[in-house]
Specification:
Chain lengths: ~110, ~110
Amino acid sequence: DVKVTQSSRYLVKRTGEKVFLECVQDMDHENMFWYRQDPGLGLRLIYFSYDVKMKEKGDIPEGYSVSREKKERFSLILESASTNQTSMYLCASLEQTNQPQHFGDGTRLSIL
Amino acid sequence: AQSVTQLDSQVPVFEEAPVELRCNYSSSVSVYLFWYVQYPNQGLQLLLKYLSGSTLVESINGFEAEFNKSQTSFHLRKPSVHISDTAEYFCAVSPLGGYNKLIFGAGTRLAVHP
């Protein structure tokens, strides 16, 4: 069965900290995605990666960066956390075209 | 560019009643269509998808959705809901030929009451 694991379910950080959110998939998928979910806005794509060391900006990349050094791991980095980055963050992976994305359980991040 | 509009942010309904969650999309290219469900404190799970072929697609737990190209809609229906269907439902589209990016609607919170 497909499994996407996000390292933390809940995380509390302070303004200005550098924050790492980790995501690991065990299906050898090439495509991985980071979304943030906010009430009334649905899910918005931050970054995605279609191969190791390859990345593309999504719709809201400002304030974020990503790293994909290995195929199974896709990290989201908040360079200097701000309160408006308090949100639920969801990671997903995808095998190939016309297949559904598989989601992790999410990380609820609070920036104080 | 694509966009997805879910016309109802919240839908309250009594158990065993029918329900329809509405979804309209806008796109200049052909798209795949999806409904995802999110139960409390969980990630998203695929409920059903339309890729091609029959415009009526069904899920294993009694939901169905119909692709209407002329109205650019993909409404989700269930003839009789259960308490366990309480969740948030997201409609999403993915343009053909891209990197499988999903564009989501804002979500509809379905609350089933006894």
